[in-house]
């Protein structure tokens, strides 16, 4: 199959930007769950090949995900891997964050997490800090973490699942003190770092989005490459930015434009990308091309 020069450039950029294991997680999230969470090894290798990943790297990354408990070996006529229960739960939780389009509103209030961990259990303190950071909390004061209120459900569940509920109290609150709340937001979250990441996302993905604007639809293979690449790069950003209210963010915040680009491209590429995968019989026996 001939590949246009523009497609080669896109694949090369993707291979540098995303690790193969991240691409595999995206493939499972998009295309395996409706089929019991299973993909054949040959299918994974073939699809990663479209994304610029060679076979040894693909197989090595599959093994890493197995060791981490995300995938488990399962033969269905041919060798393959299915999502573990933990892997399936991880993807399900991610859906609510990654595909959430609404930003928080000031009137929603704030979620405060206050924790105190005895010194002899400092490993729990590290686990708590890591969890709250991963969920998108900012640090308002030592031992006091803050996030938009919509994270309450995910936070309570994560604390329960990790056995940390007894170490942290959750409160709902409003900001009542005088002062420059946008300035406080800049100190509670690393907005400068986030701005850099969003700007890089826009630089990386705007050309492809503009190439297929005005109602044009890319061919199925190009849509598949673009969509997997787009989602893989987007996936971490909603965890670093918990959807802070727009009025508290710096002017012309690039996260707004990045979200608009992501959801517009998703709408344009999702169906042709899936059609390409289904044509390859990815859910069944090994792909032969």
Largest sheet: 4 strands, antiparallel
Shape: globular
Structure summary, number of beta strands:
7
The helix/strand class is alpha+beta
Outline the low-pLDDT stretches: 1-17, 282-289
Strand fraction band?
Answer: 5-15%
CA distance, first residue to last residue: 10 Å
Radius of gyration: 21 Å
The helix content is 55-70%
SSE run: HHEHHEEHEHEEHEHHHHH
Integer average pLDDT: 86
Structure report:
The chain is α+β, with helices and mostly antiparallel strands and 289 residues long. The protein has helices at residues 5-17, 20-31, 41-50, 55-67, 85-98, 122-135, 152-161, 181-188, 191-211, 220-234, 237-240, 254-279; strands spanning 38-40, 71-73, 80-83, 110-115, 138-141, 144-148, 168-173. The strands form two sheets. It has a four-stranded antiparallel beta sheet with strand order 5-6-4-7. β5 and β6 form a beta hairpin. α2 (20-31) packs across α10 and α9 (191-211) packs across α12.
């Amino acid at each position: 199959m001939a590949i246009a020069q523009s497609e080669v450039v896109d694949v090369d950029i993707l291979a540098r930007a995303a690790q193969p294991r991240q691409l595999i997680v995206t493939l499972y999230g998009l295309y395996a769950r409706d089929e019991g969470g299973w993909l054949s090894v040959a299918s994974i290798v073939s699809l990663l090949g479209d994304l610029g990943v060679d076979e040894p790297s693909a197989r090595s990354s599959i093994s890493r995900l197995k060791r981490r408990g995300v995938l488990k070996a399962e033969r269905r006529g041919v060798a393959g891997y299915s999502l573990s229960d933990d892997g399936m739960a991880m993807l399900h939780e991610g859906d609510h964050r990654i595909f959430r389009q609404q930003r928080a509103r000031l009137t929603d209030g704030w979620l405060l997490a206050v924790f105190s961990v005895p010194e002899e259990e400092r490993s729990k303190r590290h686990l708590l800090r890591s969890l709250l950071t991963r969920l998108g909390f900012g640090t308002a004061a030592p031992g006091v973490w803050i996030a938009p209120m919509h994270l309450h459900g995910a936070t309570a569940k994560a604390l329960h699942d990790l056995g940390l509920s007894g170490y942290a109290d959750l409160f709902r609150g409003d900001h009542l003190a005088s002062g420059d709340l946008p300035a406080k937001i800049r100190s509670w979250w690393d907005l400068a770092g986030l701005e850099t990441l969003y700007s890089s996302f826009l630089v990386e993905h705007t050309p492809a989005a503009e190439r297929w604007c005005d109602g044009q639809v890319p061919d199925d293979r190009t849509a598949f490459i673009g969509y997997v690449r787009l989602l893989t790069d987007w996936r971490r950003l909603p965890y670093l930015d918990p959807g802070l209210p727009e009025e508290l963010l710096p002017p012309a915040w690039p996260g707004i434009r990045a979200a608009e680009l992501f959801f517009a491209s998703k709408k344009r590429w999702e169906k042709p990308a899936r059609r390409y995968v289904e044509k390859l019989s990815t859910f069944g026996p090994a792909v032969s091309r």
